[in-house]
Fold these 3 entries.
Entry 1:
Amino acid sequence: MGPKVFVFNPTCEMAVVNGHGSYRPPARLRQFERELAAITLWLGGERDYVWMEEAVSEEFVAQLKDWGVSAPQFITSPQEAESALSPELHPGDGVPLSTSS
């Protein structure tokens, strides 16, 4: 199995229940998502990726290495994910990460 992309999206159920394709969580929940996005690093390995809105600091990555953690790589755009994983995407096999052509 190839590398995987992990995305922390705790409000996805709210979007489904809302029933609109343009759901945007309240600012407080968007901040929550940004602050905890790196938590998914514990699910992946060195070959995997964690997709975040903001890049993590080099100090954070260095600290993980000092602790002996085989952390995934951190990416901040759909283009990075597509170039790293194409054509294999997880989860949602076959679902593009962006709709722009």
Entry 2:
Amino acid sequence: MQGCLNTNKNAIIVFTADQPIEVAGGGQAAIEAIGSGFSSLTIDFIVPSAAELLALNIDIADGESGSVTFDTDVTGPSAAFTLDDNGENKFTVSTNPLIAFSQVSFTTSGSINLLVVDVKQVRIDPGSTGPDPIPVPEPASMALFGLGLLGLASATRLRTRRASR
């Protein structure tokens, strides 16, 4: 499944699960299972090619319990984090801004049938996705620079007039 960012409709984010998934309707970014659920999800950042932060809320089936581990192409696998069925399993995956990740995945384990029902409140911060921008002078700085050039030109003109007398 492919999506984009609210802040950048040209962004391409690809979601892949071990079972069929779909985008849930409504006002928040959500990925829902088609059928009983899924136990792993991979998020690939295509454009921009990396991200610095991913936040999400994992909801598992009622009556289930277990754990989740996260893995990025930069940091490797995380420790296992506990999941419960109250729907409030909020996680943030982040990295050093100088080394952003291009892929994040998670896998659940625990009960025999531990399945993720949905992943909601997905937030992605692409961070800076390229070289630092070239600073542009402020208008006031440009005005001061212009006045300085005008002063130099006037002083030069006055000096050449005095020298020709």
Entry 3:
Amino acid sequence: MKKQNVASSLTEDSCFWAHVEEALISCKLLTNEGSSVEEKDFAKKELIEFEKYVLDLMKNYAVSSEIFLPGSSFMKWWGKYREITGTSYSSSLTNLLKNDNNYEAYAKGSLTQANVDRAVKRLSVDEVANMVDLECDMWLWLLGG
């Protein structure tokens, strides 16, 4: 991870906010009872790809810390996504975002690989196995199965 003060930096990917809006649409598809199984499956895959995309940007300090401002589209997405996935869901990105201190660390350029590694390693093998079961149950419920 490159360390720098990102408070005033610009997001390197000019399409970042478009990706955020697409992620918000995917959240709506997942919660919409009128969405087909195929639409929900596609939305789920898109959201997982979005998580990877954002994590990569954060690892490289390639996104402005303004994404964490209250009321930003990104924080709206995070609120909806957190509601959908619940507290049992865990990923590298969600573990980072669940800790509000990481927003400030990111803005100061002090979010280290160790922070990321801790977010990933926070869970024991048994907890991961339980989460996989819970995640499957959640997605089955969302898909109407």
